[in-house]
What we know:
Structural class: alpha/beta
Distance between the termini: 52 Å
Strand content: 5-15%
Helix content: 25-40%
Radius of gyration: 20 Å
Bound molecules: iron/sulfur cluster
Order of helices and strands: HEEEHHEHEHEEHEHEHH
Shape: globular
Amino acid sequence: xxxxxxxxxLKKLGIWNWSLPAFAGKLPDGRNYNACPSAGVCAQACxxxxxxxxxxxxxxRHQDNLRWTMDDLPGWQHAMLAELSRxxxxxxxxxxxxxxxxxxxxxxxxxxxxxRARQRTRFYAYTKEVAAFRELVEPNxxxxxxxxxxxxxxxxxxxxxxxxxVADVFPDDQxxxxxxxxxxxxxxxxxxxxxxxxxxxxxxxxxxxxRQAGRRWSRWQAGVDAARAxxxxxxxxxxxxxxxxxxxxxxxx
Length: 253
Ligand code: SF4
């Protein structure tokens, strides 16, 4: 079975990729999953929740990939190691997840072991799983692994762009340049190898652009976080005064 594939964009660059389904859903056996547990606003404008990713056979393959890692992580790891033993992966690049993320520490650990066992292959990833990376990757990263933290997730506030390599989705190329960020338009590998911080131009999908409303994902997420924090504060103060009538918190909704 072929585990690693090349989508149209990445094929041009000779990059292989491994895919999970984007965000949350239900497996055919009825189990719920979330392959992007730290997704925030990104889930509302996710390229992998659109177009060819929604074709039944594509979705089924991605769900099957996820199900395998959930049900038999050692068996999947063994199969991935066997696949990566093929000659074509020597000195090749593999993007881990063109959709989905490192959804559990066990799954992330399995990948770290794979990377350490296949030193002739180079791996890279975008991720929103900041806490898991701080704990499991940053102290001792495999030397053949590059990653970039991407904004638009629930852990955005823990990122420090002066220290962390970060990527943000901008409304267009002009706004990337105006902010002094660096586009990865010419090659996806620039996200991990080129100058940082990294700017990505939003996909030209009308309903996603409407939701993004001209904002960068980091600002969009920060707005959502601030609104949530304000709601939490007002709810707590209403509870502290004992006035929990609807509207007593000051929340207009
Ligand atoms: S983390 Fe990535 S794949 Fe998952 S919902 Fe967000 S943008 Fe989509």
